[in-house]
Amino acid sequence: xxxxxxFKDLWKQQAVSPPNIEELLSKMKDFxxxxxxxxxxxxxxxxxxxxxxxxxxxxxxxxxISTKIGIILTILAMVIYLFSYNKLVGxxxxxxxxxxxxxxxxxxxxxxxxQQFLQSTMLSLYFIxxxxxxxxxxxxxxxxxxxxxxxxxxxxxxGWVGFxxxxxxxxxxxxxxxxxxxxxxxxxxxxxxxxANG
Length: 198
What we know:
Layout: H1 7-13, H2 21-60, H3 65-85, H4 88-93, H5 101-142, H6 147-197
Keywords: Membrane, Transmembrane, Transmembrane helix
Transmembrane segments: 39-59, 65-83, 117-139, 151-168
């Protein structure tokens, strides 16, 4: 009886369960579908808001220059954000079922980098322009109110902007990062398994 058992050889000969590529591709397809749908909804909502703001300007003819500057800043915030956000369409559209795991991984890393830029730089610029625009826009109307009414209006408006910045924004960023990071981790695992088996 031979007591010299080579455990490394036994380990290598062991059947390794292949990664479930179909499930991973299904998750990638779902990621693409959800991301594109979110992009379309964001576009529709922001374009509708821009049209609404322009119609307010047209129908109510504000008198103060601050109101007009506020409207322009608010629209500018939305246009700049949409321009940057829509650059993700190219990344999402090139995701298809013919790519290798490495290509999927590279796409996801590119999407993650683009999202980080959007979530930090572009979203900060968006909120600065939007907040400034709203403050300037509201001045004409709050100047006609009582002091308490004007202060209360600004507190409510800035409270909402603060709530969106400090609560909604981080929550959405965390959710998006978790989705992308989860997919990246799974594709990295598959690549490691395939290279170990190959």
